[in-house]
Amino acid sequence: MNKKRQGEIARLIVKDKMPKNGINDQDLGNMAKYIQCISVEELRQFFKNLEVSQLNEREGQIASYIVEHKLYKGGLPGDGFNRELGNLSKRQGVDIEELRQFFEAILPKFLARTLGRKSITLNVGKW
Question: Domain range holding 56?
Fold first, then answer.
């Protein structure tokens, strides 16, 4: 999966999981603190432009970081993850296999950050 498509899928996930009342300044501050390479103002601008159909590379990176942050805050999904992917696939019109590839791409970085490692490699195979 290329970086552009990864960013597009991340944006759809962020849109799907966005609270109905929006994102408050405290949430933005927490995200910026976790992500570190993005300012609160850049995050605010990202959420303001979330509905725009065109996605630039930086917005794709930000969306991926936000999904990673949500994983960090909420923990790794459990038994219901495949069902959640199926529901997300239907709601956002994204192929479920692309969603799996997206999470396979971001999980090593997420785990490395969580475990305090420089990098982690995962081997993914089907049952």
Answer: 3-115
Answer whether residue 36 is part of any domain: yes
Residue 21, class by beta-carbon neighbours within 10 Å (0-12 exposed, 13-18 middle, 19+ buried)?
exposed
Give the three-state DSSP class for 56.
coil
85-98 tens-digit pLDDT: 899 999 988 899 99
Q: For 17, what's the count of Cα atoms within 13 Å in the CB-facing half-sphere?
A: 18
Number of domains in the chain: 1
Q: What is the DSSP string of 58-123?
A: HHHHHHHHHHHHHHHHH----TTHHHHHHHHHHHHT--HHHHHHHHHHHHHHHHHHHHT-S-----
Domain assignment of residue 94, yes or no? yes
pTM (predicted TM-score)? 0.74
pLDDT in tens, 24-66: 888 888 888 888 888 889 888 888 877 766 667 888 888 888 8
Report how far residue 74's alpha carbon sits from residue 94's, in angstroms, rounded to the nearest whole number: 22
Task: State which amino acid sits at residue 123.
Answer: N
